[in-house]
Amino acid sequence: MPFHYKTFHNKEDLISHLKAHTPSFYYSSKTSTVIPYDKLTEMLPIPEGVSDFYLCDLTKIPGHMELKENGNLVLTGAVSWQEAQQFLTSKGRNLKTSPTEHLALITAGVATSCTGERCFAFGNLRHQIVSLKYLNYNGEEKTLHRNDDFKSDSRSLKKYQDDFSAYQNFKNAPYPRFEKATDLMIGTEGQLGLVTEVEIETTDDFDVNHVFMLLPRWEENYESHMEVFNAVQFHRDSIISCELLDSNCMNYLKPDEKLGENQDVIFLEIKAVDFEKIYEEVLLNFKTISSEQVFEIGKNKFHHVRAGVPRAIFEVNSQMGVVKMGTDVQVSADHFTDLLNFYREASKVGVRYCLFGHFGDSHLHYNYMPTKDQSAPCQEAFLKLYANVLKWHGSPFAEHGIGLLKQKFIKKFHSEDQTALFKDLKKEYDPYNQFFPQGFMLMK
Ligand SMILES: Cc1cc2nc3c(=O)[nH]c(=O)nc-3n(C[C@H](O)[C@H](O)[C@H](O)COP(=O)(O)OP(=O)(O)OC[C@H]3O[C@@H](n4cnc5c(N)ncnc54)[C@H](O)[C@@H]3O)c2cc1C
Question: Could you give the CA distance from residue 366 to residue 344 in angstroms, rounded to a whole number?
């Protein structure tokens, strides 16, 4: 049995492990949807010539947080988004973004370049990271600053960066950015080192009003949805997030949590100081949505319902013994109706499904809920989808990353420019191939 489990309780033990250069997979809260944690030892191929492979738990390394005078949060060790949010709100500050799954760790969130609902107003995580520290292959702690440029001797860097420019406006591209020094650890999924400390921007903890709108099912008519989509684009300073749960999602909520009667729901988080303005200028002016379709909802219920759906879907798929079959596609606004039309066709395959996500950013998660013998048509639909996303110059995995499960789909999005730089960076930063050797940077 080549797998060994190790839990680190302090940084010193982790450093000793790194110095031994043993090939390992390091994990934090194990909420990644692209790593099949319950089947890891079956699905993680052991590299040739490796007799001992370590699965390493980083969640027991003590966490620490400090709020700087300039409002930036500095955290080290195992700190979850939930803990950071509690710490910040006690000091009148708040996070600018966080994944819907608040139990994930922030250091891991850097590794996955995670995003969240509030990206709609505040942009993505990589812009919010001021500096970070990481442990390299010799267990040495290095510091990276976002004001420094990304440096590499690789001849492929310039071409790679030129290719990336087409994806600047996406939350995440089909490959990491590699423009600022901090990008070395952002979205590289633990393949080049381990993130140990992060300095991240925060915002005032302003009051927020939450509203939701009940709309027709998108499968039949998405005219109202598009009216909301177009209207919110001009109010990103006042509207913090714009999220969708379709009518099918309601089946995953308890009876008293369900909203609407076989209707889709779009939520808006609106800054309280701007609420009146948005109410009058946006909410009362829809042509296809009457004011009777707009409701206020409490903050706790909003978060509970919004987070409840992806969690329930994750659990239902695990219970049915199928690996999650969901998408993470973001397209430009120009292609948003193409994406909705594609999902409309996909919904006719005869497999249970639901659609939810970051509607205002044209970034939705379409989830099939197949039984064990219904996987084939879903795979086929997803292959067609990714061929279209490539054609539309969209981003196939804009927030959850590649991990192990999306490798077969991402290959077509990587050309020689990307794979050559990945190889050079692995040689430079992981010469013993000890950091997640099965990751996308060296995939065959
Ligand atoms: C219900 C649900 C909702 C979700 N919503 C969102 C969302 O809104 N946005 C979003 O982006 N994601 C979301 N996710 C996915 C997931 O929460 C994120 O990918 C998260 O960043 C993973 O954090 P984790 O602590 O669970 O990391 P893990 O799953 O433990 O690890 C994820 C990856 O990071 C690497 N890693 C872990 N720690 C480190 C470290 N210290 N240094 C270097 N590499 C490391 C691991 O090797 C692995 O490749 C959701 C997941 C679920 C189940």
Answer: 10
Residue 311 is predicted with a pLDDT of: 86
In sign, the C-alpha dihedral spanning 341, 343, 346, 348 is negative
Structural domain contains residue 410: no
Instruction: Establish whether residue 116 lines the binding site of ligand 1, counting it when its CB lies within 6 angstroms of any ligand atom.
Output: yes
pTM: 0.95
What total number of domains does the chain contain?
3
Q: Is 247 in the pocket of ligand 1 (CB under 6 A)?
A: no
- Whether residue 37 lies inside any domain: the answer is yes
Our answer on whether the CB atom of 104 is closer than 6 Å to any ligand 1 atom is: yes
Give the residue, out of 5, 8, 18, 31, with the most ligand 1 atoms within 8 A of its beta carbon, to mutate for a pocket test: 31
- Confidence (pLDDT) at 272: 98
Q: Where are the alpha helices (DSSP H) in 154-269?
A: 157-164, 223-232
* C-beta 194 within 6 A of ligand 1: yes
In the prediction, which pLDDT does 100 show? 87
| 176, 169 Cβ separation under 8 angstroms | no
Are 240 and 387 contained in the same domain?
Answer: yes
- Give 328's Cβ-side CA count (13 Å radius): 26
CA of 106 to the centre of ligand 1 (A): 9
Q: Is 360 in the pocket of ligand 1 (CB under 6 A)?
A: no
Measured from the CB, is residue 174 less than 6 Å from ligand 1?
no
Q: Which of 145, 265, 271, 266 is nearest to 204 (CA)?
A: 271
- Chunk the chain into consecutive blocks of 10 residues (it has 444) and report each block's average pLDDT, rounded to whole numbers: 93 98 98 93 91 97 98 98 97 94 96 94 96 98 98 96 96 97 98 98 97 98 98 97 96 91 97 97 96 95 90 78 83 98 96 96 95 89 97 97 96 96 98 98 93
Q: Which domain holds residue 138?
A: 65-204+417-432
Residue 441 in any domain: the answer is no
Q: What CATH number does residue 349 fall under? A: 3.40.462.40
